[in-house]
Amino acid sequence: MGVTRPPRAVIVGSGLAGLTCARELGRRGWSVTILTPGRAGRDGASHRVHALAPWILLSAPWVRGDSPTRFLADLKRRGGGRERPGLTEVLVDEAHRAAVELCSELDLVTLDDRPVLLQGDAMPRGRRVVPRHRLPLLLPLLHECAAVGVRIVERAVVIGLATAGDRLTGVTTFLRESGRPTSLAADAVVLACGGVGSVFPMTTVPRWCRGSAIALASACGVSLHAPHLTQALPVTATPPLYFPTTAALLAGRIVIDGSPFAGGTDLVTATRVMAEAFRRGARVALDPSGAAESLLPPKVREGLTFQREGRVPLALALHHGVGGVAIDAWCRTSMPGLYACGEAAGGVQGARRTMGTGLLEARIFGQRAAAAVAKDHHRLGRAAEPVAEHLIACPAEPATLEARIDALIGPLTVIRPTGELLEALAELERWPLAAEPATERGYLAGIRRSAAMEIVSSALTDPEAGSGLALGDGPDRGERPGEES
Ligand SMILES: Cc1cc2nc3c(=O)[nH]c(=O)nc-3n(C[C@H](O)[C@H](O)[C@H](O)COP(=O)(O)OP(=O)(O)OC[C@H]3O[C@@H](n4cnc5c(N)ncnc54)[C@H](O)[C@@H]3O)c2cc1C
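Above: the input record for the complex with flavin-adenine dinucleotide. Below: its predicted structure, written as tokens.
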């Protein structure tokens, strides 16, 4: 009698969500393959978390008097009804456990005795942590994946999904080594390929995180949840992409073309005013005279521009995709056999996202995706041979297209007027497709084009987003003045 092979899962991406999911499935005896475009565990937003500020933020109820119920009320208030049913509740119920586990597994050290109060929160829930060692953050998880036999293929960009009937049956990946698309059959596929930051020219996330989940799902008709819900942050322009902290932004003065902006201490308003100023071509800076100077991160304070000018030039960067692939509370998409978790999935939070929850979402929903894959397998059984391949369209002249996306999408980072959305969509839709065999560069431009079109189309259907501030916007990271160490 032949030996039955274990069920096969393909995980797209090696951030916290992907590695968590892979490890859990490996422990359950699945044959797991992770496909990732760069170096495993180092090519996603998860690897970058302490690049923006010197510390990592985890937001979960910790203090006496706080509770999942209060946390949920705060998240729901910010979400404004734009969450998917049941997802915020999962985050709330599991946030504390996930935060404790992450600190232990990734060897994170807490900076403060007590949680800090984050802007807009009713209770102090922010835990500032730093890795104890200067090793890659996800190294412990990579080791655990190796220990349970997870196979990792680096330099592999997933460019399509395969189906048989209404069931997902595998992926197509572009392997840089061979320079060719290759098919991989699977009984389950998990999209853990991060958010949409790099659809936008100014972003805090790595270049690979360019909306692959949205593009792949859309190529085979899988439902999306409000892909236009995004979050932007004011960051330093030089040195690039540091977060000056909410404390410094609130305690200092925002200066637009040399004149102070008198807009109160509300960062959402300040972000909008900054966005309007950038659209006029104005220069925006933070003047941290007085107490605010000591609140700036040391890297910013020591930067050449600040030393010379006494001001910090600011920019706005796309930081997080709040929308994404539509999932249920167990990460199932609208297609059997296809799952999404972490930033690839949408709807855990709604109109505005709470800072310090990205890693928690990746962790919690990475675990849930693995549990659902294993459970559903009893019902779905093995996948049939793929019948149809749904590849992302590969555009002609990818370098020119990337430059056009910068020009069309950059101004829409925060403010999204309907006319500009329509113009962008029309130009992206009519972009010619490649006649010659596609390259990795072509597929990467294709992923970005497809994700940009979904974001723009989704914004056009949302009366609140089409003409105003991108929903999901507004920084909430950092402490109130005086509470940062
Ligand atoms: C600078 C910065 C600071 C942050 N600070 C915090 C913080 O303090 N606290 C917090 O909770 N959250 C923070 N976040 C948010 C948090 O990092 C993310 O929400 C979280 O890491 C997302 O994890 P993920 O596994 O879903 O995605 P990622 O870690 O982004 O992983 C996505 C993976 O998919 C891969 N991929 C993409 N496209 C493809 C494709 N086509 N084929 C194959 N693989 C693909 C990527 O290369 C990567 O391996 C921060 C984010 C940034 C960028």
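Notes for the reader.
Residues 476-485 have pLDDT under 50 and may be disordered.
Residues 398-466 form one domain.
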